[in-house]
Design brief:
The protein is about 50% helix and about 10% strand. It contains 24 helices and twelve strands. The protein has a four-stranded mixed sheet. A hairpin with a 2-residue loop joins β1 and β2. The chain is globular.
């Protein structure tokens, strides 16, 4: 596919430099990519580890969001080439992939989780939430653990007794991240508002070898282009021509997941990677109509020959989440870091952590000569840890001081032996509940939930429980979409309008899943003689996921908090 621009015909991207990568070797970069990589706002990702504190347990896992971003760009382009996308689409996708993590927090998802959940903590006195509003010395601990347990109880409820709303949400999927604290939303703001990115894109995409614009673009054209990239980063299906690009960054088999599975496994030292060659070779794009009356959607999927590689990918991801990210030492370290970041947010003293959505927005919107966003990295977290570990401030909660002392000495709180507190679930909900009830830590967990939901904790917490649920896949069989439509219109008259409404509900929900899940394409020939409708991997009988889709692992670990003032 060629793209004509100002009398120049280009059938390939023009690469001007290379970057050596530990996973893929040399990664070629275009001029605009080279200039963006050189910007301080992008180099900031050097200071954010990909896996936060995992290197405490797996010492070689010290790779960063910087190298991951380069890898996602490489992987996204390899997928785009396989699908036959044009150079304009490829350049747009490469930039979105390169910038997809530019809005990440210190400690990546650990810091993001703290900010995402903080809005749910309510101060005693009303007004802005801060340490000064937590008048009771133990209120911070109550608020922290109430937040911790309420989130985990919500996830357990969805597993044990899902409501109709939960079931519908699991079928319809998501369309972008609407919360203003999400790292993709923060990244989109940076892409749209950072003057250096605007300048680089305007200079590099307006030279004599134009590949994006047919003429000399205005600043408004550049901003529209960047807004399109930011929508891809957020996973928003705004523009139909970008549907394929969004899928390549936001689905169960996207460039982000393919890179981090390969990269993480190499740096950690495990074999939980992916057969990238087979997966990419079997990628395909088709226009799909769920029903004859609906407009076709461009859907990215795999051929039937790629089913085994897709199975392997999902199973490896399951074991990676269960045994690496779910390692009890890592869970302890991340909870300690979570509590410290919550305190840093609430701390009225300036410490580099934005205290409100408005402050975060102001930080993102600052000009390049102001370095507060550039310093919003893992280094800032460790600076706060050291300050809290030696502070004599009476308003800093004791649990935060204790956690900071531990982390400043590269130590963690202790945990119970987890082997008797793990259950794999592949059966109905009644057996699920009975299996959980047999776990010793589950009973302790339920006691703690009741205590914190009633705010009945009047002394420092000495132990807490962490529940981790790992699912093999978020896909649901097609019959589930039919069932929810049947329940909604059960008992209604079989009029033409009700039948059409039922079909519309099934079509809309299934379309979302086609865009977000792994789709399998069968053979297709002229005249439809060998046509096979696209189906989700879970509905493909030659797939292991067809039999194992309901597999979930539930592990409940109990941690003991030993305060330093008791030890000294």
């Amino acid at each position: 596919m060629t793209h004509k621009s100002a009398g120049v015909t280009l059938d390939k991207l023009v690469f001007v430099d290379k970057v050596m990568d530990s996973v893929y070797g040399y990664i070629d970069v275009t001029k605009v990519e080279r200039e963006i990589i050189a910007l301080p706002i992008f180099k900031r990702l050097h200071m954010i580890k990909q896996l936060s504190l995992v290197d405490f347990v797996f010492p070689s896992a010290v790779h960063t969001r910087f190298s991951h971003s380069l890898g996602v760009m490489y992987m996204a382009d390899a997928m785009a080439v396989q699908l036959g996308l044009g150079i304009c689409e490829r350049q747009k996708l490469r930039l979105a992939a390169l910038l997809h993590d530019i809005g990440h927090y210190p400690l990546a998802h650990v810091g993001e989780k703290a900010y995402l959940l903080l809005s749910k903590v309510k101060p005693v006195s009303g007004g802005p939430l801060s340490l000064s509003s937590l008048t009771d010395p133990l209120y911070f601990e109550n608020a922290l653990f109430e937040l911790h347990y309420s989130e985990q109880e919500k996830e357990l409820r969805k597993l044990i007794s899902p409501t109709a709303k939960d079931i519908k949400a699991s079928l319809f999927g998501k369309t972008g991240n609407s919360t203003s604290w999400h790292h993709e939303t923060v990244g989109a703001k940076i892409i749209n508002e950072n003057p250096d990115i605007l300048r680089v894109v305007q200079e590099c995409l307006c030279d004599e070898k134009r590949i994006v614009f047919s003429g000399t673009p205005s600043q408004c054209d550049i901003k529209v282009f960047l807004e399109g990239i930011s929508n891809i980063v957020k996973g928003s299906y705004v523009s139909p021509e970008d549907y394929v690009l969004v899928q390549l960054l936001h689905s169960e088999l996207d460039a982000d997941r393919l890179d981090y599975m390969k990269r993480d496994s190499i740096h950690i030292g495990t074999n939980f990677g992916a057969d990238l060659g087979t997966l990419i070779k079997n990628l395909e794009k088709r226009d799909v109509s769920v029903t004859p009356c609906r407009k076709p959607l461009p859907v990215v999927g795999i051929k039937e020959k790629g089913v085994a590689a897709a199975d392997q990918f999902l199973i490896n991801r399951f074991f990676n989440n269960r045994h690496i990210l779910g390692n009890r030492h890592i869970l302890a370290l991340e909870f300690m870091a979570f509590a410290i970041i919550v305190c840093a947010y609430l701390d009225p003293f300036p410490n580099g952590f934005p205290k409100s959505e408005a402050e975060l927005t102001e930080m993102v919107s600052e000009r390049s000569n102001n370095c507060s966003l550039l310093g919003f990295t893992d280094l800032l977290f460790w600076k706060v840890v050291r300050e809290y570990s030696v502070t004599d401030r009476s308003d800093i909660p004791g649990i935060v001081k204790s956690f900071s002392k531990y982390l400043s000495k590269y130590q963690e709180v202790s945990s119970s032996v987890p082997h008797a507190n793990k259950v794999d679930i592949l059966t109905d909900l009644h057996i699920t509940l009975r299996s959980l009830s047999d776990l010793p830590n589950y009973r302790s967990y339920k006691t703690a939930v009741r205590k914190f939901s009633n705010k009945r904790c009047h002394r420092p917490i000495e132990k807490f429980q962490d529940v981790r649920i790992v699912s093999l896949s978020r896909q649901k069989p097609f019959k589930n979409y039919l069932d929810i439509a049947e329940r909604k219109y059960h008992g209604s008259s079989s009029t033409t309008s009700s039948v059409m409404e039922k079909c519309r509900l099934v079509a809309e929900s299934f379309e979302n899943r086609l865009l977000e899940s792994i789709v399998v394409f069968g053979k297709e020939e002229e005249g439809g003689a060998c046509f096979s409708s696209p189906r989700l991997l879970i509905d493909c009988k030659q797939s292991l996921i067809h039999s194992l889709s309901s597999l979930k692992s539930v592990e409940i670990t109990e941690f003991n908090i030993l305060f330093h003032d008791k030890e000294d």
